Amino acid sequence: MLPSLDDQLDRLQACTDALQAACEKITGAATAPSFTHAVLYAPIGDVIRDTEDSELALFAVDDATAYPTPGASSALTVRRVEFPGATPLRRPPPRRDQPVEPELYLNAALKCIHQYQSIRPMRALYTRVMDLYSQVEETRQSIQQSTESIERSHAAEAKSLKPEIEKTERDILELQRKVAEARKQSSRPSASRKAQATTSRGRPPATSKSRVRATTPENQDEETSFWSTPAMPSSAGSSLLTEDDGFDLSNTSASFASPAPAPAHTRRSPSPMPPSLTPSPPSTRTPSPVPPPPPPSAKHESPEQVASVASPSRSPDLPQAEPKPRAAHHSETPRAGRIKITVDVERIVAKIWTTMGDAIMPNRDASVKPPMAKPTIQHLQMIDTSTPTLGSPSTSSVVTDEDDAPTWNLQQILVAHLLLAMIMSPPTYAMPFAKAKQVVAAKAAEHGDAAFSVGQGSSRVVYNCVAKRLVKIERGGGEQTVKFNL
């Protein structure tokens, strides 16, 4: 006889009671965890609840007909699997870098509140959103007011600065007018000096004593009589030159030597020779005997006689004191004031002293700091305007008054001329290689060196600077450019 349903229920109840009693012995009911309490003690109706829409969307099962089972015929068929998610091959949507207005966030929050109002009312959040709306409006109004106040302050400041600007402009115009007047006044003395020099060319130079005495009223008559004396004929001048004491015409060591560098004042304005003392060609006559030296009483002669005697004695030196070609060449050389001293020029000068300091200034003390840009440029110009020394024994044995002055060879003069030409080519301070050779060749031609004028010597000067790492030759654009190696 099979057991009935009631018997089975009784047995299940007994097993459940026994199980419950055993569990109570292990853990008390008061300390049971939430899961144990929900399974053993909570009514089953409290556990069961309705699922929400979001949970149903997470665990929804698709229709089986959407994914048919492949049959035997399509077992070897390859299909493309569609994946709607993002992949690394797809570019992300472009993001706008424009700032987002705060009202946009508030509108989104308000939309969420209205959408879920039926599920859960959110009155506090709604009040908070409306307060934020009012705060945003107040902030915008304060920003607008601050902007308007700043604009008004700028306008007032501009109005207050306008008189000062006008006053500054007037001061600038006044200073410019004063500068123009000063330039005019500075140009007037130079013009007067030129006119005085042109009027005094026909007048013989007088000694310093006679000039001082000419300004006093006591010696006015003597000065007038001195200048009214008729000029001496040329034969007398030649006899004076021939009979001059201590002058030997047979000594040709000084006549064939190269002219010594004249001082700066003689280069600018050489004193003209009076017509009466112009040297005449030497005559074939036998020179007259040398007169005896003057007696000691000649020391007490009048200043006019001293001037008339002293002037012919200096006549043999006058032809050598007229360096006309060098004065013209000196005017072509730029002055240091025409070159603008910049940071690049200072770097170039430092590079020159580092690489070729011994060439432009021999026997220089290495412990002494080299000069700055302006003195260095003046030193290069001094080398450029000097006369090169020759290697002949006749010139090397000549002794002049300027033996202490430094002498420069043609190589040093050409290097100085090339460096000055490159420094005077801002802002790149460079020139084409062909032009550099032309500059060096033209400078060498002025001194009469045909070897440098051909082209090989000019290239040697540039390559010498390249070997010293002072300059470099860059090739590009169809030409070669010589630049400083900074």
Automatic annotation (TrEMBL):
<feature type="compositionally biased region" description="Polar residues">
    <location>
        <begin position="187"/>
        <end position="201"/>
    </location>
</feature>
<feature type="compositionally biased region" description="Basic and acidic residues">
    <location>
        <begin position="323"/>
        <end position="339"/>
    </location>
</feature>
<feature type="compositionally biased region" description="Polar residues">
    <location>
        <begin position="225"/>
        <end position="241"/>
    </location>
</feature>
<protein>
    <submittedName>
        <fullName>Uncharacterized protein</fullName>
    </submittedName>
</protein>
<feature type="compositionally biased region" description="Basic and acidic residues">
    <location>
        <begin position="149"/>
        <end position="184"/>
    </location>
</feature>
<feature type="region of interest" description="Disordered">
    <location>
        <begin position="144"/>
        <end position="339"/>
    </location>
</feature>
<feature type="compositionally biased region" description="Pro residues">
    <location>
        <begin position="271"/>
        <end position="297"/>
    </location>
</feature>
